[in-house]
Design brief:
- By secondary structure, the protein is mostly helical.
- Helices cover 73% and strands 0% of the residues.
- The chain contains four helices and no strands.
- It is elongated and about 40 Å long.
Length: 79
Amino acid sequence: MKTQRDVISKHLDEHKYLRHITDKNEALSSFIEDYGWLMRELYCTRICEHRATCELALHLSSSGDLLKDHLKKDLVLPS
């Protein structure tokens, strides 16, 4: 979670500027909507200590199609 917060913190002002958003909360919501799926994939497949056994991480690693999975939005975090 700290990794995701660090990425958002680093890029939020630029995102606000590029999207012409003045409100920080609106920018945060927009950033997560635009890039949250990618941050999740990078974290799950490259950083998480459970990536070798996690069903979601294994699926994300093997699918090779970021956009397809992002658009389908059918991936559910394992419980």
